[in-house]
Design goal:
The protein has six helices and 39 strands. It is mainly beta. The protein has a domain of 56 residues. The strands form four sheets. The chain has a 31-stranded parallel β-sheet that branches. A three-stranded parallel β-sheet has the order 4-9-15.
């Protein structure tokens, strides 16, 4: 009886009288509702989590905000109490709260007040080896924040979460200044035999080789067997798997061991006003990676990352004609991406299929690539019905727009890329609609590289203005359509087509000082140029050896 009374008293103490209301629905934010209404496809009602009006203050569970006391147990107690009571808001006040991994439960809003810093510990022994999801047999290092098979969860407020990524990530020498490299060496850790890569620990550097010894272990390797590879198996900073009604709002997520935010197989997922930051040299430091999720809103978020900025991935095998796609119904609006390998990115894992993605009113500055669509034979799938509109780009280091089906580890000329067969993991990019793009400064305007057996096909460009060193270059593509597109390339030609068929250029533009508008090579043909305004059309076309003289037609 005394124990029951004590428990009740503790609960009453933890109920804070200050009002903590549930987050607004997406449709209750006028500008966001307008984006939803003008989506080129029918977006489902993307709900946000709702919580009872009760609050639990973290300090009531023994947490201390001195930046030294480990508060892992306090977070666990507060989350358990909140979920057991039917849900509510856990209040993290201003201060520095050191902690190990935080495991979420359903119906919990972790609310970080202004001035609150949740600092994850650099002590890797605090991160257990666990299963990658509720049903998985894969063993991973526990993420700083994670949850499996949950409903109604949120991280909100104006506070900060720091993943102590510098204690996990390797650093390439080529990405540092001499002073930075010297500081790394002085901090400890080890360097690779070639001296070009710094690792925080020997366990991290040797982890990949150690994992090979577990591959065929009998009986199967246990979580304990994976401990020597913990430092190598860097975790995502925040990951939720198979969860419904997820919200991140207002918070800053920074300094991740690997990807910053990486949900998988979630439905009704919303990110609003979130700031995501990894140093530009952060290895595998993606900002937002949405994997195999459905019904997603990413609204007015700012990302600066060491790898891809806002990225879509899917997995699970090629989908059939019934319309089953692992990733679909995505709205990305009003976002800014600074340093990143790509501003908006699809891939490289597209084998689960994707469709119905609407990206609008976004700004990319200084990214390696602006719009980046990548995959390869072996991890590809059907990607269709992608709409990108009203994009402003500045100072793009490489391509403003890129389609690449030879991404990373499957080069041209290998068996996978020369085979005529199309299997369940052959990439297919089709039905992309890219409009109203303004890019000032890029190395290459547009680069499209398809597979001979699976060309990139049926892509529409409208109202595009790109200033770049090189123009548009396409290989193994079909059905490319350019309308009111101005590619102001410093070098000739403006358009280069190699094995490209069924293409139209309407109201094309030859920049002053340029002479060559179109160069056609290989098996290119059926290229129509309408209303070009060229004074001497024939002189503005170059046909490669063996190309039919009627491959390029002016109408």
């Amino acid at each position: 009886m005394k124990k029951s009374i004590a428990t009740l008293c503790t609960l009453l103490v933890c109920l804070i009288t200050s009002a903590q209301t549930s987050p607004l629905a997406n449709t209750a934010i006028p500008e966001l509702a307008a984006y939803i209404a003008r989506s080129p496809f029918q977006l489902p009602n993307i709900s946000t989590p709702q919580f009872p009006d009760r609050s639990f203050k973290l300090s009531a569970y023994g947490a201390v905000s001195d930046g030294k006391t480990l508060n892992t147990a306090a977070f666990e107690k507060a989350i358990s109490a909140c979920s057991a009571a039917g849900g509510g808001h856990i209040i993290v006040p201003a201060g520095t709260w050191l902690t190990g991994p935080i495991r979420f439960q359903s119906n919990v809003d972790l609310h970080l007040e202004k001035g609150a810093l949740v600092q994850f510990t650099k002590d890797h022994t605090q991160y257990p080896m666990i299963k990658a999801s509720g049903k998985s047999t894969t063993i991973v290092t526990a993420s700083p924040v994670y949850g499996y098979d949950l409903k109604n969860i949120a991280i909100t407020g104006d506070g900060i979460m720091d993943g102590a990524g510098e204690s996990w990530r390797p650093v390439k020498k080529l990405k540092t200044t001499a002073a930075q490299w010297s500081a790394l060496l002085a901090s400890g850790g080890v360097t690779s035999p070639k001296g070009d890569l710094w690792w925080p620990s020997r366990e991290a550097m040797d982890g990949e080789d150690y994992l090979k010894t577990l591959k065929n272990k009998q009986p199967a390797a246990t979580a304990g067997d994976y401990l020597p590879a913990r430092d190598f198996l860097r975790p995502y900073m925040v990951t939720f798997v198979n969860c419904d009604n997820v919200l991140l709002e207002g918070v800053t997520l920074r300094n991740s061991p690997k990807f910053v935010f990486c949900p998988n197989s979630c439905t009704n997922l919303t990110l609003r006003y979130v700031n995501v930051f990894n140093e530009w040299w952060a290895q595998n430091g993606d900002g937002i990676d949405i994997s195999a999720c459905k019904s997603v809103v990413i609204y007015k978020c700012t990302v600066s990352a060491g790898d891809d900025g806002i990225c879509m991935k899917s997995s699970g095998g090629r989908k059939d004609a019934t319309g089953a796609f692992n990733l679909e119904n995505i709205l990305i609006a009003g976002c800014t991406v600074l340093r990143a390998h790509g501003g908006f990115v699809i891939g490289s894992n597209t084998d689960g299929g994707m469709r119905n993605i609407f990206v609008t009113d976004c700004h990319f500055t200084g990214t390696d690539i602006g719009l980046r669509f990548k995959s390869n034979a072996g991890r590809g799938g059907l990607v269709k019905d992608i709409f990108v509109d009203n994009i402003v780009m500045r100072d793009i280091q490489h391509e403003a727009i890129s389609f690449d089906t030879y991404y990373e580890d499957v080069p041209a000329g290998t068996a996978k890329t020369t085979s005529s067969a199309i299997d369940g993991k052959t990439p297919e990019f089709t039905a992309f609609h890219i409009s109203n793009v303004d890019c000032q400064g890029a190395k290459t305007a547009i680069a499209i590289t398809g597979l001979p057996q699976a060309p990139v096909h049926d892509i529409w460009f409208e109202n595009i203005i790109i200033t770049a060193d090189k123009g548009m270059q396409a290989t193994d593509a079909a059905g490319l359509h350019f309308s009111k597109t101005k590619i102001m390339s410093a070098k000739d030609p403006v358009y280069t087509f190699n094995n490209v068929t069924g293409t139209t250029i309407s109201e094309g533009f030859l920049p002053p000082g340029n002479r060559l508008f179109v160069k056609a090579e290989g098996k290119s043909g059926n290229i129509k140029i309408k209303s070009s305004g060229l004074s001497h059309p024939a002189a503005a076309v170059s046909l490669g050896e063996g190309v039919d003289k009627n491959a390029v037609i002016f109408e």
